[in-house]
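To close the chapter, one final illustration. This time we ask the reader to focus less on the individual chains and more on the assembly as a whole: which components sit near each other, and how the overall shape emerges from the parts.
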Amino acid sequence: MGTEPLLEIRNLATVFRTDGGVVRAVDGVSLTLAPGETLGLVGESGSGKSVTNLSILRLIPDPPGRIERGEVLLRGVDLLKLSDNEMRKVRGRRVAMVFQDPMSSLNPFLRVSRQMTEVLEIHEGVSGGEARRRALEMLTKVGIPDPTRRFDDHPHQFSGGMRQRVMIAMALLCRPELLLADEPTTALDVTVQAQILDLIRGLTRDLGTSVILVTHDLGVVAGMAQRVAVMYAGRIVELASVDRLFDDARHPYTIGLLRSLPGRRPAGAAAGGRLASIPGRPPDLARLAEGCPFEPRCPWAHDRCRKERPPLRDVAMGQQSACWLDDPARATPTRPHLWEAGT
Amino acid sequence: MNVTAATARIESGASLWSDAWRRLRKNRMAVVSGFVLLVIAFLTVSAPILPGVSDPNRQDLELGAVPPGSGHVMGTDILGRDLLARVLHGGRISLLVGLVATMVSFLIGVTWGAVAGYFGGRLDNAMMRFVDVLYSLPYMFLVILLLVFFSRSVLMLFVALGAVQWLTMARIVRGQVLSLKNQEFVEAARAIGVSHAGIIYRHLIPNALGPIIVYATLTVPAVMLQEAFLSFLGLGVQPPDASWGVLVNEGATVMGLFPWLVIFPGVALALTLFCLNFLGDGLRDALDPHLRKD
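The assembled structure is written out below.
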């Protein structure tokens, strides 16, 4: 990468206290993000990808949640050590967020214009006509048809896709350095999803904004991100460039995810038929065993997987994986080919 | 819906209030009620300078109680005092007590409930237990205590009534805030850096305004009735001053002989309460963008 990272997360751990015990939602996540880079954060529900995002902005509801340890360095400054007031100046101005459900993330009571100018009032002290002018300009940029007429409408007068455009406009109003997008298209129609993704890609490229895109859709990642972090049970299990990940995924969980994608079949595999799936269920994060959390579902699990947790290490140029199959101490690589087992 | 909304749109960054005002004007009952209330308010406020009713305490013992007719539109009471003058002057006190006490309860209750609900946890617990304790005390006892300990002025009456009326308001607002604060738009507001105060006042309270307003409009009549009760005990308005409650009470004792003495103050009180309820209904509809009927 060479350049100084925009964001560096070191050993972040976020826990939730529940009746069922302490849930380690994020458990020792480390990653870096270069300026202008888009990182995909992939994993199934409950893998800790959203909690990672919320932890960066310190939006974890406390109680029951708590950021237990770690550092979140934004250009070298640890966000976790900032005072509440200093943190408030980071939110919305330097780090912005787009949420999953645009139907509920706008205040139903305030006009769209008011919600947008609020951001400018808080962070740049602009209000009145100047704020309205800038908000309207942004609303035009995100492709709201007839923005002047829609500007003073209430959120319920907008469709889901349009609301997500408004959310994106609000997020980018202050030209943040980092945009956290938490499954921004999951709640939208398929036809609208591509438009919204195009919009995020185009606008963040123009503004030079880095993006952490949380999604469970590897297809979205392929089109948007330069690098991907795959999360499982609160940890990153594989971190690689998009090309490496799709060409030569190393972690069995990533392999399982890729196998479950429609339309990505090896030449030998029968066309049609059922989509592959990963057997079993994600582990209970309140009761994690000692070994690799993916072990119970892994077709290649062996003794060591049950006893020790594999660390995340370099397995190739720009690719890290947390799996004992990639242990450099092993004499012969026994890692099965991507499509070998169980086709 | 969109056509009317578009044609009625106000170009320059209309606020929530101008928007609500526009919707309120479409509600005929609310408009009429508001107008009647304005007339009542105007008459009572300007009573001291209106001809013929400027002095509610001028007695004419020889005249005694006469039924409504020329000279005395609403008749006179046993002491020969003009009832119209007494109703208008009584309305000043009744309306003032209703409004000021409601305002006091509104300010304390909304802030208390919103803060407790928003911050939650131990603070919420402590604040709401305090409310529970006050709830468990007979509130009239509190009011009487306050009135006896401090001066027995009308001002103290406002404060004392308001100070015991905010409990239910606090509970209502807390409940609303609890259900609102976990919604995504509140998290989104936090994510753009809105302060706690900003979230409470711009994002939470406006969304809870419907129930707040309805309860506030119910508080006004409740307070007016309590004032009448206190006056009856001799703790409220002192004779010869009178509020509507006092007039109704006095009239009720001689109802069989001089029915007009209870009818006119009673009608004034009832009319005001009716109008307040209709206006409250209209306000609730106007303030909630979801409930628009257009």
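DSSP finds eleven helices and twelve strands in chain A. Chain A has two domains: 7-225, 231-266+275-326. With these observations in hand, you are ready for the problems at the end of the chapter.
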